[in-house]
Automatic annotation (TrEMBL), chain A:
Residues 134-240, 271-377 form the Plastocyanin-like domain. Residues 37-61, 399-418 are annotated as: Disordered. The keyword Nucleotide-binding does not apply. Its EC number is 1.-.-.-. One of its GO terms (molecular function) is oxidoreductase activity. Keywords: Oxidoreductase. This is Multicopper oxidase mco. The gene is mco. It holds the Pfam family Cu-oxidase_2.
TrEMBL record, chain B:
GO terms for molecular function: efflux transmembrane transporter activity. Pfam families: OEP. This is Cobalt-zinc-cadmium resistance protein CzcC. Belongs to the outer membrane factor (OMF) (TC 1.B.17) family. The gene is czcC_2. Residues 1-23 form the signal peptide. The keyword Signal applies. Keywords: Signal. SUPFAM superfamilies: Outer membrane efflux proteins (OEP).
Length: 505, 484
């Protein structure tokens, strides 16, 4: 039986069932009110994005708004899967290749400065114990480099000769491995196999030529130090800018840690993880990737979790897999994806045209990675008329428990599945929401972003300018509402409630 | 040939396949039958997975024997009598029978002293002598009066001896007062501690109820199974029984206190401070004070003086008293008035009271050893009491200084962590239980400290309802009509 026949049979059966009311009774709703499944897909997208939204091309740009049916300003696929422009595959960004590679940006991480010494780019790298604020108020003890975890980004150009003066400020031996680079074996950093340990207080110098281009990273070659956070980007820009050129080049390092309650020291021996960070911060403290409508965006994702692979999913866009840490993939082998599994110690490059304005989730799809320090949802937080504050008010006599449990939810096995509880203090809310990258998002957007999550914000030029290039106050929901007005249907939009101090999240 | 071989192989394969299929069929049949039998054996409702609404309910309160006569809820009754240490001590002072007994021992000994010092009465006799002489009514018909004159200060010594015994009785009466007040205080502390523990048992019971509810919440989320729900019910009921046991303990303590006090006490609340104020001195200092001041030691030392007097008394016993007698009469033979006169004295030729003197000397020596025995016995009892006191005080101090504050802080941290969504509620319940249980343990430690402190400060005298002791052990030399 063909698929068409299958579908037809299903629709017929569904109609009959609806007519007799059987399914309607079972589901408790009027099935007849449902529209039939549309068989004609034409015109599906025209309703989604208002025709009144007509983004303008930058005056100085020579690229086009549309190539072969693919538009950089609205969700589209193009006319031909075999076209170079299908899903925006080869659609150039606004930035010309002649301007060189787009500046690499790893949100919340600094770049490692260098100085030229005899034609060599010389970097000072200091392995050390550091504190990192995963969430506002949650300052965790980990290891990193130069006061940062992950370490600062090393950025060079293909063909450079580099020198790393590594001074160990840890109280134990360490080694630095230049992950993925084809260098003389004596500089590989593999403990004992290639070099003596860098003792505490000692300095070791690595020097080699970089003939590769692409996404690499450096890390300690002591496993527990790796699990304790010792990693950083090593970005090698190609001599010849990749085609097509991108406007944005972001880097996100995904990591996991186990840190017990009432504790701020990571336990690298643990086989389980309860804290998840992107560039050293947990959602919603991760910094959104903010881009302009129509730009070509590259996101490099590196998974440095100790034992967990991460299926990375981007909402609202289809991206091309353009490279892994080994090398840039030839165009012919690029793959369009919505979700890509990034394995441990792998880096993957995604590219796409930001043609769908809005605030889009960008996250690991593992359910337990979409939250921090998750716990069983039993006890006062799910009981009626109780609060942990009542217990805290008098430690010497606890409130009685209501054993009758009036909550009708308990009639449903599995209730509750929603995480309930954690309060955000005013200071925490202020710190998260006061960053310009967060401004104008839908009220209480913070509640949606946990653990290995961040957001991709695609804004029209004027909104981008107001949020990112001025000091103007931007109210919660202001940008999101404006985007719905321009590209959606504002009459069917609920603007949400503003987040109040002490609100549960 | 080849074709025949092929046919043979096909036939063999078919047979094997058929046989294995039959075997498999049989084996499957057996398994199915086993499954069915297992299903049948698992037929009970309790073996099924139940919806939350059909879970075994939380157990009812224990409904067996209840101590109804004394059931009370004094928290709701403002008029109920509150017992304090001062009130029960005052009641005991007036009503404990052994204190009266001890006082009567003193009176009895002073009475003996009175009796022992009384001078012997004169004896009046009618005398008829030589009746029939010369056919007369007698040569002497008349009255004589005799009087025994006690020598060597026997009466004074006897009176002194019993006065000294009265003094022993006074020490023993003080000891008896200590026995009673110690017993009252120890029992009051027992009741006070039980009432405090009862409050904490009620807290732990709330936690056990929470544990049962929490397990049901976990069941609903697939995080606990039916077995865990049942076990949580059992834990709850066991805790309720623990609380009831403490209630019984409290009633027991009040009833025992009531017995020592000597009047009925209502089953009401007790009030007082369980926490000790000062630590005792070193063992040697405490022992020195006990030996110097203990009424027991003072009594046996006083008894030594009794025995010394007894020896002196017995040593003069052999010195003869002088009896003088005489009186007027009429001589019917001669028809004239006549008089009789005589002096009587015992000659201590054979009996010089040697045996009794020796016995008294033995008693005296025995009493010297008795002093030593009592002192050693005090040391022995103090050693045990001091150890219990020291251990309890060390524990209570460290519980006060470290254990309770740390567990309290841990419990608080658990609550804060729970509030932050960083730990599960069962962890908080565990911390809560640990905190309340440590406080219960500390109450027991304070109880031991206060009870041992009471005993040590009360000269280790116990037995508030034991009969009050007399000044001498039974069988002492008291077996004469006139005490001496």
């Amino acid at each position: 039986m063909s698929n068409t026949e299958d579908r037809r049979r299903f629709l017929t059966a569904g109609s009959l069932a609806a007519a007799t009311g059987v399914v309607g009774n079972l589901l408790g709703r009027n099935v007849q009110a449902q529209e039939p499944m549309p068989m004609d897909m034409k015109g599906m997208s025209s309703h989604q994005h208002g025709e009144h939204a007509t983004p303008q091309m930058p005056a100085d740009s020579e690229v086009q708004a549309e190539y072969d049916g693919y538009s950089r300003f609205k969700p589209s696929r193009g006319n031909d899967p075999n076209s170079d422009y299908y899903l925006g595959k080869m659609m150039p960004g606004f930035r010309p290749a002649s301007d060189g590679p787009a500046p690499f940006e790893a949100p919340d991480l600094d770049k490692l400065p260098y100085k030229m010494v005899g034609g060599v780019k010389e970097f000072q790298l200091v392995p050390m114990a550091v504190k990192r604020e995963f969430l506002p108020g949650y300052e965790m003890n980990v290891y990193g480099y130069n006061g940062s975890m992950p370490g600062p980004t090393i950025e060079v150009t293909q063909g450079d000769r580099v020198r790393f003066v590594v001074t160990n400020e840890l109280p134990e031996d360490t080694y630095v491995h230049w992950h993925g680079l084809e260098l003389p074996v004596q500089w590989d950093g593999a403990s004992e196999l290639c070099q003596e340990p860098i003792k505490p207080g000692e300095t070791f110098v690595y020097e080699f030529d970089v003939h590769e281009e692409g996404t690499f990273f450096y890390h300690s070659h002591v496993p527990m130090q790796e699990a304790f956070g010792m990693v950083g980007w090593f970005i090698v820009h190609p001599k010849k800018v990749f085609d097509p050129p991108v406007d944005r080049d972001f880097g996100l390092i995904f990591q996991n840690f186990f840190i017990d309650s009432s504790q701020n020291i990571a336990d690298s021996w643990k086989m389980d993880w309860n804290w998840h960070t992107i560039n050293g911060r947990s959602g919603p403290y991760t910094t959104p990737l903010v881009v302009k409508h129509g730009e070509r965006v590259r996101v490099r994702i590196m998974n440095f979790a100790p034992m967990q692979h991460h299926p990375i999913h981007l909402h609202g866009h289809t991206f091309w897999l353009t490279g892994r840490e080994g090398a840039r993939t030839p165009h012919s082998a690029w793959i369009p994806r919505n979700t890509e599994l990034v394995g441990i110690a792998q880096a993957t490059d995604f590219e796409f045209i930001a043609n769908n304005p809005g605030d889009w989730m960008f996250h690991c799809h593992m359910v337990h990675h979409m939250m921090n320090h998750m716990t069983e949802q039993v006890g006062p937080r799910m009981r009626r008329n109780t609060s942990v504050d009542d217990y805290l008010a008098n430690l010497d006599s606890r409130p009685a428990v209501d054993s009758t449990r009036q909550d009708p939810g308990f009639g449903t096995p599995g209730y509750p599945q929603e995480m309930k509880g954690m309060n955000m203090s005013d200071a925490m809310m202020q710190k998260i929401g006061s960053r310009r990258e967060m401004m104008g998002m839908r009220p209480m957007a913070e509640m949606a972003v946990m653990g290995l999550m961040t957001t991709l914000r695609v804004m029209p030029e004027d909104l981008y300018h107001k949020v990112m290039e001025t000091d103007d106050l931007v109210e919660p929901g202001e940008v999101f509402t404006e985007i719905v007005k321009r590209f959606g249907d504002i009459s069917k939009y609920n603007s949400g409630k503003k987040m109040m101090p002490g609100m549960k999240m | 040939m080849k074709r025949r071989l092929l046919h043979l192989l096909i036939a063999l394969t078919a047979t094997t396949t058929y046989q294995s299929a039959v075997a498999q069929d049989a084996s499957m049949g057996q398994m199915m039958s086993m499954d069915r039998s297992m299903t049948q054996s698992l037929g009970g409702v309790d073996d099924q997975v139940l919806p939350e609404s059909d879970l075994p309910p939380l157990p009812d309160m224990p409904s067996g024997f209840a101590d109804f006569d004394t059931a009370y809820d004094y928290t709701d009754n403002a008029t109920v009598e509150i017992h304090t240490l001062e009130t029960v001590l005052a009641l005991a002072a007036g009503n404990n029978p052994t204190i009266q007994q001890a006082r009567l021992h003193v009176s009895a000994e002073t009475s003996k002293a009175l009796q022992a010092g009384l001078y012997p009465n004169p004896v009046l006799m009618y005398v008829g002598e030589k009746i029939g002489s010369d056919g007369s009514a007698g040569e002497f018909q008349g009255f004589e009066v005799s009087q025994r004159f006690v020598t060597a200060g026997k009466l004074q010594l006897s009176r002194l001896k019993y006065r000294q015994r009265a003094h022993v009785s006074e020490h023993l009466a003080i000891a008896q007062t200590y026995r009673v007040t110690n017993a009252v205080e120890v029992q009051f502390i027992e009741a006070l501690a039980a009432s405090m523990r009862l409050e904490l048992q009620r807290e732990i019971e709330k936690t056990a109820e929470d544990g049962a509810v929490t397990t049901r919440e976990q069941y609903n989320q697939g995080q606990a199974n039916l077995t865990a729900v049942r076990r949580a019910n059992v834990m709850l009921q066991k805790q309720r029984l623990e609380r009831m046991a403490t209630e019984n303990e409290y009633r027991d303590a009040l009833r025992r206190l009531s017995a020592i006090v000597g009047v009925p006490l209502s089953i009401g609340p007790t009030e007082g401070e369980l926490r000790p104020s000062n630590a005792l001195e070193s063992f040697d200092s405490v022992l020195s004070r006990l030996i110097l001041e203990s009424p027991e030691v003072l009594a046996v030392r006083a008894k030594l003086r009794v025995d010394q007097t007894t020896v002196r008394r017995e040593q003069v016993e052999w010195i003869p008293d002088i009896t003088i007698q005489g009186g007027p009469g009429y001589n019917f033979s001669n028809g004239d008035d006549v008089y009789n006169a005589g002096v009587q004295i015992e000659l201590p030729i054979y009996d010089r009271n040697q045996g009794t003197i020796r016995q008294a000397c033995q008693d005296l020596r025995r009493q010297q050893f008795e002093i030593q025995r009592i002192e050693l016995h005090l040391k022995e009892r103090l050693a045990s009491a001091y150890r219990t006191y020291a251990t309890a005080l060390q524990h209570a101090t460290e519980y006060d200084r470290v254990v309770i504050p740390e567990l309290r802080a841990a419990y608080r941290q658990l609550l804060v962590s729970y509030k932050d969504n960083r730990i599960a509620w069962p962890d908080v319940l565990e911390g809560q239980r640990d905190y309340f249980q440590a406080r219960m343990e500390q109450i027991d430690q304070f109880k031991h400290v206060r009870q041992q402190e009471t005993m040590i400060n009360g000269f280790l005298l116990d037995g508030g309802l034991m009969a009050a002791e007399g000044p001498v052990p039974p069988g002492h030399i008291d077996a004469v009509a006139k005490p001496r």
